[in-house]
Amino acid sequence: MSTCTETSLSTSGTIPKKLSSCNNLNIIDDNTTLNNKKLSWQQRLFGKQLINCKCNETNTFVDIKSIIDDNTGNTMCDVIGIYFSFINIGATCDDFTKQLAELYDNVNKKNSDNENDINKIKKFEVVHVVLWSNVTEILDFDESFKNHINDLPWLAVPNQDYDRKTRLTRRYRIKSGVPTLILLEGAGGSIITRGGVERALADPGGLNFPWRPSHPKSTLEDGPLLSCGARESNEPMLHEELRHCIKGVYFSAHWCPPCKAFTPQLIDTYQRIRERGHNFEVIFVSSDRSEESYNVHTESMPWLRIPFNQEERRKKLATALDVQAIPTLVILDPRDNIITLEGRAELLEDPEGLNFPWTSRLVNILTEKYATSLHDAPAIIIFVEGEDCEIQFGESVLLPSAEAYRRDRPDYDPNYDDPEGTLQFFIAPDGETSEILREFVGLDDAVPLLTAIDIPRGVYAVMEDGAEITVDSVQQFVDRSRCDKLSWNKIAAHKSKNETNVHN
């Protein structure tokens, strides 16, 4: 874990424009069949058909039901890997694709005594999502797709299924040009790890596959925590002494410029939070390349640290918290369960720490930070005036729908992945962020205004003129949005001069 980055991974997988016609926007809801029968999580996630890469013809489809146990509804394999790779002239993903194919064979050979037994539980299956790094260099997308997956031993999302690829890339926040392997539990689709590429490179033989992370508590308990240079006490502490504290686990390095910029901000917010009486402690986990650099880095820190010489402990903690880049701040509750993996973003948005410990909310105020998430997933947004009473009204009508949508979801679990997909709920008071969004989408300045905005699909819908915004009407609007029964319009920023309404 040594990557230094300013931002979290963002959805930027490229899909050719020739595949992204308006016809793909008129989508049947993935949550139900035509007779209203509930689909399996595999069907909702991957669709009803995948391509068998082992066949030379790209039109050789496999019905997703063929890998689902009729009795349990679970996938007939222990682990599913969603592999996002990118076609480009440099073929930068090819080396890892070959290594993944070897891992795939090694893992499955361990329990393949009878390859002809179709009822046998497979250890590992891969669903390949092919994207493009530079579409201008590709002359024939179908041919390049075929060559990319030809003779691979697994399954792939069809080349023409633009909407499916868009949903998967935004769901898992895939970074353009970077091969990514997400491992899911076959039994229910919950995430085992988002760092499958890193795990496979470190363990090419798959001896510890599928690399299920341990609970962070076991690593935190594995030895003393030392004081940093600016801490009032030099006495080491044991994890047990922090049992009543909310903890921030801070992954950083002296050589990383964004870390150097963020550390003073974290120190300031840390002190403000503690001055208000909160039981808050930070534990520094270093990615420094030398002990000398480590000592310089910790000199100004007023909190605790894991010793530099305990490299294995530091690596285990990064793995347990699925840390992919630095700087990262993970907030843990007193029982060491994760509150948020996005502590850095929360702190930058709230430097005073007024919303500490930044527990997840069902309905959020649309700020600049949250506006970026609109590019990853659809949202229900109510535009209101800036007064407190209007914001309270917005929350009162949105919250019941948000609670109904999230009722089966735990407060936060890094291994949990909602098989229904992600729908965000926001209140947008008058201000710069709301004005920019209105202009981007093509909305007038009416308030209150209830909208469904899906930037990844390039569409939006508004509640019909004159309709009263109530708890019930909002719920009906949300239901219609999820079933794709709203009157969608093309977002202004994506719309050509001759395009108006997408479909009714």
Describe this structure in words.
- This protein has 504 residues and is α/β, with parallel strands linked by helices.
- It folds into 3 domains: 17-202, Glutaredoxin (3-Layer(aba) Sandwich), CATH 3.40.30; 216-349, Glutaredoxin, CATH 3.40.30.10; 364-503, Glutaredoxin (3-Layer(aba) Sandwich), CATH 3.40.30.
- Helix content is 29%, strand content 19%.
- The strands form 3 sheets. A 7-stranded mixed sheet has the order 2-1-5-4-3-6-7, with helices on both faces. It has a 7-stranded mixed sheet with strand order 14-16-15-17-18-19-20, sandwiched between helices.
- Helix 12 crosses helix 14.
- It is globular, with a radius of gyration of 24 Å.
- The chain starts with 40 loop residues before the first helix and ends with a strand.
- InterPro entries: Thioredoxin-like_fold, Thioredoxin-like_sf, Thioredoxin_domain.
- Pfam families: Thioredoxin_8 (PF13905).
- Residues 172-368 form the Thioredoxin domain.
Q: Which keywords apply here?
A:
Thioredoxin domain-containing protein; 504 residues; 14 helices; Glutaredoxin; alpha/beta; 29% helix; disordered C terminus; 3 domains; seven-stranded mixed sheet; single chain; 20 strands; thioredoxin-disulfide reductase (NADPH) activity
Give me the side-by-side strand order of the main sheet: 2-1-5-4-3-6-7
Q: How many individual β-strands?
A: 20
Radius of gyration over all CA atoms, rounded: 24 Å
Shape: globular
Total number of helices: 14
Q: Gap between N and C termini, in Å?
A: 48 Å
Mean pLDDT: 83
Count up the domains. Answer: 3
Helix percent reads 25-40%
The low-confidence parts are 6-12, 17-37, 410-420, 497-504
CATH superfamily of the largest domain: Glutaredoxin
CATH topology title of the largest domain: Glutaredoxin
User: Based on the structure given, which CATH architecture of the largest domain is correct?
Assistant: 3-Layer(aba) Sandwich
Structural class assignment: alpha/beta
Strand content: 15-25%
| Largest sheet composition | 7 strands, mixed
Q: What is the CATH class name of the largest domain?
A: Alpha Beta
